[in-house]
Amino acid sequence: MNTRIPILKLGNCLLISIQWELDDQTALQFQEDLLHRIYETGANGVVIDLTSLDVIDSFIAKVLGDVINMSKLMGAKVVLTGIQPAVAITLIELGIQLEGVQTALDLEKGLETLRRELGE
Amino acid sequence: MNTRIPILKLGNCLLISIQWELDDQTALQFQEDLLHRIYETGANGVVIDLTSLDVIDSFIAKVLGDVINMSKLMGAKVVLTGIQPAVAITLIELGIQLEGVQTALDLEKGLETLRRELGE
What we know:
Two copies of one chain form a homodimer. Chain A has four helices and five strands. Chain A has helices at residues 24-41, 58-73, 85-93, 107-117, and strands at 8-10, 13-17, 45-49, 77-81, 102-104. Chains A and B meet through strand 1 and helix 4 of A and strand 1 and helix 4 of B.
């Protein structure tokens, strides 16, 4: 059974779309996979698209906050796209630190934001 | 458990990366999801990236051939990227019809090919 989230590489950016509620194991596997791909590819930008995600539970929100900070540590800028109201509420209420994380409406705008930030 | 393949929308193209061997159920679900997304979004291009796929079994090869032909029927051009040797061998040996399907080295080149084909 495949319970991993594919990570797409487009130029020097990685694209991830989380389209269904993750279970805890999948979320942790995603964290590991993403950091590994950043290291392996030397990507300097990451877009995580949450458009199709209606809700997010506290564990997944924490993993998401962590993976964003870890990615930044590894030198990759992160843009979050398509955050729905309930997801925004959960992230803020849980005090997830998303300082310095850009957001955008959709994947395309996220990629534009990232390329602008990276000065391309 | 999530055993679906995320389909990313970038402009008027859909991007799919198949990174692990699919089981039969996931492959059929993917076929249904992709056709539904083409209809829903009006996408006129699809890039299916197989870079991380080492091998492909005959059932999955058939589903892949089918979904490409179905997408074309629905008006979307398909580009396959990152086909590895063993995958190419399986597709040809099984006589999977991939007429008129463009291929490219990686996701980025696939997207370029598609945009050129679509006259953008």
